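Worked example

This section walks through a single chain of length 197. The input is the sequence exactly as stored; nothing has been trimmed or padded.
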Amino acid sequence: MLLFEPRPQTPRLQTQSLALTALSTLASRSSRFAPLASFLFAIIFIAGCAYKQAPTAINDPGNQPKNGPWAGRISLQIQSQPPQGFFTSFELKGSAEQGELTLLSPIGSVLGLLRWSPTDALLESGRDVKRFSSVDALLEQTIGAPIPTTALFDWLRGKNTEAKGWSANLTRQNSGRITARRLEPAPQIDLRIVLDH
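Given that input, the structure is written out below as tokens.
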């Protein structure tokens, strides 16, 4: 019976194991190569000790960035007559009280820059600047549907905050995927966010 289950080797460890086997064979076949084999063995050993495996992401609000930045893609489907859709890449930072949202085209050019604070909300597109009374009004005008701003920032942080009429699914938030649906009031709205890593 095994007291410890053997761990599967990572690609890095597999590479090191093969390299060490080859060096052992090289040293045993000829004494001429022994010093070279010993030198290479030391390099591989030191590199292996220095290597640390990246930690696994955990769906824990305490591990999420409080004020971003977040970047990725956002899509919005509105089940109106006729149906409407919104899809773009984005960069977001800040909070529901004060922040900045950049909307990007598929080739990376800036489509619009949204800025908001407790006293102002602006949409900058080229040389045009439009002012709004709140960040909620700013997002609704830009995206085409009302978005629960406070809850959205909490969803990005991994906290499933309730928003009236909305239901969020954060089961894949640790892999950068967030979905939410608004059923009331009509029309139905489906929100999807895919974050870059």
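What to look for: Residues 61-113+141-195 form one domain.
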